[in-house]
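Subgroup meeting minutes
Present: P.N., E.W., G.H.
Scribe: E.W.

1. P.N. recapped why we're keeping a running log of single-chain structure predictions: easier to compare across weeks, and new members can see raw inputs and outputs side by side.
2. G.H. added today's entry (361 aa).
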Amino acid sequence: MSKGRTRHMFAGGNTSEGFFSYFDHILPQEWAERIYILKGGPGTGKSTFMKNIAEALCNEGYETEFIHCSSDPSSLDAVVFPEKGISIMDGTAPHVVDPKNPGAVDEIINLGRFWNNEGLTVNREGICAVNAEIGELFRRAYRYLQAGYSLYRDNEVIYGMAMDRGKANAVISGIIKEIFAGIDIAEKEGKQRHMFASAITPDGLVNYLPSLLTTKKVVVIEGKPGTGTEKLLEKARNCATERGLYTESYYCALNPHKLEHLVIPELDISLTTSNESHHADVKYTEKIDLNKLLDDSVIRRYKEEIEFNGNYFKMLLNRAVETIKKAREKHDELEKFYIPNMNFDEIKKCQDELLDRIAKN
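Output recorded in log:
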């Protein structure tokens, strides 16, 4: 039997607004047969628990989505089995997940019942101290990202001033007409899913675009910040929704409200933006360069500001990454308190029991 298709993405991100979550879109309640929510501290084996079940079902031929952790991409926040309508997710901080429809859709699996309470109580002071350090490191990282984003925004404003909006609107209109030619407005709007394809992590900027942009047609939109790349994607999404088509929206790792990539599976088409901060290393069928619509005289006039903003933005982004890396190191320290106090044999039994339940679903 051939392995199932795998896709990789993020549901939460370290952004200029702090930790931002699209966890409600991992598997929306109305699409789900069952959502299993894992509770337990660091080092209790939640990520391994999910990986083992995901690999087993993937080997059985089921499509599997791996939702990675932005604070450590080698770890998982969730796994999804779309064909079964089942998800397993980490329900602990910072992305606290509680049941919305307990018993009917959601079910809690508490891995905390497999730890030695006495062993953890003895280390109470150490656990609390390290947790406090982790919290402060993330708050500092978010301040760096917020400061960096203010410089990034200034460049957006400058490039926006240099943009020929009239010509850009004409280009966007032409693309939209081509994509949706012959498709009528539907009586029922299409469903939307919102996630991240990339994240700011302790390993730097990480993206999983090659696993997501797998449609027959891939349109790359090149454009500096402020050239309106997101406007094209937003119009395409609105048109798709009006026509009853399902869309997957993937947002900017720095600004979680800025649309960067759009997939319309029923049309077998993806739209992806490309600039200095991110580039989709995939084969594309069409490229649209909005940079051609920039007024060079405006760019030359603000050359010094653009370079200043760009240089210090990179410096602050790198500083944020280093700070998140320190937080991961502290998280590793925290796990050392928990790992010796866990009964992993019992966790393995729990994992195997859940795998058996899902396989029979």
